[in-house]
Fold this sequence. Notes:
This protein is of the alpha/beta class. It has two domains: 5-94 and 208-436, Adenylosuccinate Synthetase, Chain A, domain 3 (Alpha-Beta Complex); 108-204, Orthogonal Bundle (Adenylosuccinate Synthetase, subunit A, domain 2). The protein contains twelve helices and 20 strands. Strand 19 and strand 20 form a beta hairpin. The mean pLDDT is 96. Bound molecules: guanosine-5'-diphosphate, 6-O-phosphoryl inosine monophosphate and magnesium ion.
Amino acid sequence: MHTGKANFLAVMGAQWGDEGKGKIIDFLAARADVVARFQGGNNAGHTVVVGKEVFKLHHVPSGILSPGTLCLLGSGMVINPVVLVEELAELERRGVDTGSLRISGKAHVIMDYHQALDQANEIFLGAKKIGTTGRGIGPAYADKAYRRGLRMIDFVEPERLRKRLADILPLQNRILQRVYDHPGYDLEELLERCRPASERLRPLVEDVSLLLEQQISRGKRVLFEGAQGTLLDIDHGTYPYVTASSTVSAAIGTGLGIGPHRIGEVLGVAKAYTTRVGEGPFPTEESGEQGRRLRERGFEYGTTTGRPRRCGWFDAVVARYAARVNGLTGLAVTKLDVLTGLETVRLAEGYRFRGQTIRELPVNLADLSDCEPVYRDMPGWGEELTAARSLEDLPAAARAYLEALEESVGVRVALISVGPERSQTITPPGSYLAGWQ
Ligand code: GDP
Ligand code: IMO
Ligand code: MG
């Protein structure tokens, strides 16, 4: 029986995704009973390094690598069943027991036609494209809102799947053929392609809301695994350069079917610098040598699509915003080790916008492209940090940088990551995660 708010811990992306949520979840999951995802789909790419093994997870919660941890896919997700089955097979091939995965029947299904629509739409937009992952995420969520989606509960029942697809497919084909010059899909072929995934996933589909409530009432420790990041949130992000789901902590309730009071602490994961994949504004972006250096040292290439990530300095304005819209109660600062070797490290404390200095994001986030960062420059350090295991192991300049970051964001640092491995994690004294292990 666990008590205390940290036992119901949300782990949220505080920037534009890829903050290292997978690594942080994996680190915490060793002592957790449940890890639940509540939004997004296989646009997510969460990398977890365990010894020499590198796992890239897209649907499956990062808790899967901790034996005995119940892993849940919530109703707020969109799931590509064919890809999920491949993901499970790959994990099993590598010796990971995936028997603890359960899927909400209310989660929506990503079908081939969603992926085709996503990619065709990006081509149609040309230079104005969003830069999506091309996984069909937007069209699947759009169909959910149009009330012509297919849910997991129907996907795993052959008769329901046939009936539902027969209802849905004519319109999908009409759109594909007439708008996008795509040949469309044949019902029987599509059903045949779905059949193995439907059979494989059938025993895993359950009432996830009920399962989770039972776990919570038994005092089990629960981690809520966010995907994407705050600035990619459909409402609170840099619209239209966002993903199609709500990525903030308030989405946990609807995305899992639990009350908001079930969320205890909210941990925001942020890199010690910033990255972004895809299009859209990014005030602290460094497109020259400095950005290239961060990309090479931080190995900043997309986990899902392999695209080079855009890189730049830490943006405290963005992090402060993420703190507000998520109600962050702590920060996990990752990839601090990547900053080693820089003469100066910078963090944006505000912006110059229309002749004024501002400390909060502009009302219209599209105006971010007109915001010039106001930097605080601090001395860098030359020491490698990857072997540090406590605050005292960090050079004074790195500690000073973390203090400045903490002060500027206004949220305490509860974890520091200095490398991709579980062990390369520092829990500062006084952190609410200090008692976690
Ligand atoms: P996520 O989508 O938020 O889970 O993040 P990604 O997995 O897409 O990207 C984070 C990348 O950084 C992964 O390759 C991790 O293995 C790696 N990583 C995580 N934390 C650290 C760290 O502290 N230092 C270094 N060097 N790499 C890290
Ligand atoms: P994780 O969970 C980084 C970005 C895409 C694109 C926009 C919309 O690994 O942090 P979508 O395919 O969702 O419609 O694309 O969102 N994007 C991500 N960027 N990390 C992710 O996930 C992302 N998921 C989507 O690059 O700009
Ligand atoms: Mg990622």
